[in-house]
């Protein structure tokens, strides 16, 4: 991801006021500026039994121990397949380094505004302190300040945006991210073994382990139920390693169509599969939608390290994993698509044949019903189209392969995310 910054245009409207400053200004009144109010939260709440699910826990020391490796590797594969998230314990990152990293990050966000603004994200930039993907004055914003930095390879670093206060920040972050790259490499190796693919082939896609970090500061908000710390999204990378810098929770993941809270273990790394690894695994591993909520009384601080592909490259399923369920795409085009979606205020999803089956439309009455249900026309050339026989189970399907010679006269069915049943989602081409 870091390598692509200079290869694409990223246009933002400019720097927004610090959310931390807003939170302090509105603390007594409890008011929240309108552009941070997110009414969609009420329609997408936590599952009724949100406390009944816990992320799988993977023990790195057992993965590395020949006596327990096979058993722990099976657990790892299951976690990647069924959750796309897991907590990694005994990961080998020194506890003292973790403590120093947390302390330095907390100290940076405690600096006066003018000192943090010394490393502010510039117009049309990505690295630095501030907000990402602000593309209009009307859009809804997340309740978060961030510090985003390219960390690997070293030549991608722009030290102008690396804070000099606290004085230990740069050295600590360098050591911490180097350790995380080592952890990521070990995980990629065990994942390759689980998938039955060559370890070096998988690591070759992530040659040099390109890495960026996003350090998030979520101020407390007295109307926490009306704002979002981080909008629902998936990560357009290979793998993300998340460290909680304090004991305040807020991460939520969507499993089987419902949101569940994550109770991060002290000192653990929360690991999630990104879009790229889902594609490479031909859909066996899952890139899961997640979001962050805020606390009404306490600040929350997290450090996310994203490990992405080495450019130039192509991204597509490994051939030995069966018939491809995803199209192979250029790595830079994929990255551009991810950022373009962010700039347009929409979630970027993979563009495969994933979760879809092609069936023939043999009944003209059925075809007429399908057309009546379409919410968008094919001519609109939107990224997705929604239709269903049951309005209460509305879901979306990709348009990418609907107009090929092979698929003309056919429609697609997709699994409803919150159900194990097949829900009819239809795409009809001109000749159908």
From TrEMBL:
<dbReference type="InterPro" id="IPR005123">
    <property type="entry name" value="Oxoglu/Fe-dep_dioxygenase_dom"/>
</dbReference>
<dbReference type="GO" id="GO:0016491">
    <property type="term" value="F:oxidoreductase activity"/>
</dbReference>
<dbReference type="InterPro" id="IPR026992">
    <property type="entry name" value="DIOX_N"/>
</dbReference>
<protein>
    <submittedName>
        <fullName>S-norcoclaurine synthase 1</fullName>
    </submittedName>
</protein>
<dbReference type="Pfam" id="PF03171">
    <property type="entry name" value="2OG-FeII_Oxy"/>
</dbReference>
<dbReference type="InterPro" id="IPR050295">
    <property type="entry name" value="Plant_2OG-oxidoreductases"/>
</dbReference>
<dbReference type="GO" id="GO:0046872">
    <property type="term" value="F:metal ion binding"/>
</dbReference>
<keyword id="KW-0479">Metal-binding</keyword>
<dbReference type="InterPro" id="IPR027443">
    <property type="entry name" value="IPNS-like_sf"/>
</dbReference>
<comment type="similarity">
    <text>Belongs to the iron/ascorbate-dependent oxidoreductase family.</text>
</comment>
<dbReference type="Pfam" id="PF14226">
    <property type="entry name" value="DIOX_N"/>
</dbReference>
<keyword id="KW-0560">Oxidoreductase</keyword>
<keyword id="KW-0408">Iron</keyword>
<dbReference type="InterPro" id="IPR044861">
    <property type="entry name" value="IPNS-like_FE2OG_OXY"/>
</dbReference>
């Amino acid at each position: 991801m870091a390598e692509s910054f200079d290869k694409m245009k990223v246009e933002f409207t400019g720097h927004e006021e610090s959310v931390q400053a807003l939170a302090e200004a509105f603390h007594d009144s409890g008011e929240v500026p309108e552009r941070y109010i997110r009414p969609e939260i009420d329609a997408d709440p936590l599952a009724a039994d949100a406390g009944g699910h816990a992320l799988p826990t993977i023990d790195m020391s057992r993965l590395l121990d020949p006596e327990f490796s096979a058993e722990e590797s099976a657990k790892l594969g299951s976690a990647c397949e069924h959750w796309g998230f897991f907590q990694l314990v005994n990961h080998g990152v020194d506890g003292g380094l973790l403590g120093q990293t947390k302390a330095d990050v907390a100290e940076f966000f405690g600096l006066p505004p003018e000192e943090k603004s010394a490393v502010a994200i510039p117009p049309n930039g990505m690295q630095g302190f501030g907000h990402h993907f602000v593309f209009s004055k009307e859009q809804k914003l997340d309740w978060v300040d961030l510090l985003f930095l390219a960390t690997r390879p070293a030549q991608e670093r722009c030290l102008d945006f690396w804070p000099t206060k606290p004085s230990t920040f740069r050295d600590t972050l360098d050591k911490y991210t180097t350790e995380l790259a080592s952890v990521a490499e070990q995980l990629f190796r065990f994942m390759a073994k689980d998938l039955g693919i060559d370890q070096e082939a998988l690591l070759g896609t992530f040659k040099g382990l390109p890495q960026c970090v996003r350090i998030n500061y979520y101020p407390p908000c007295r109307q926490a139920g009306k704002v979002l710390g981080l909008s629902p999204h998936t990560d357009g990378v290979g793998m993300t390693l998340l460290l909680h810098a304090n004991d305040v929770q807020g991460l939520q993941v969507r499993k089987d169509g419902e949101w569940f809270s994550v109770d991060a273990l002290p000192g653990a790394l929360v690991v999630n599969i990104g879009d790229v690894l889902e594609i490479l695994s031909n859909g066996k591993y899952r890139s899961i939608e997640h979001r962050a909520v805020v606390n009404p009384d306490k600040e929350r601080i997290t450090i996310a390290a994203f490990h992405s592909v080495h450019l130039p490259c192509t991204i597509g399923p490994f051939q030995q994993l069966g018939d491809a369920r995803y199209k192979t795409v250029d790595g830079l085009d994929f990255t551009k698509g991810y950022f373009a979606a962010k700039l347009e205020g929409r979630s970027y999803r993979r563009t495969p044949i994933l979760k879809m089956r092609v069936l023939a439309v043999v009944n003209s009455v059925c075809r007429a019903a399908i057309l009546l249900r379409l919410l968008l026309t094919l001519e609109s050339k939107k990224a997705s189209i929604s239709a269903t026989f049951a309005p209460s189970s509305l879901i979306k399907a990709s348009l990418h392969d609907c107009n090929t010679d092979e698929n003309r006269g056919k429609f697609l069915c997709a699994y409803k995310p919150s159900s194990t049943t097949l829900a009819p989602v239809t795409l009809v081409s001109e000749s159908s």
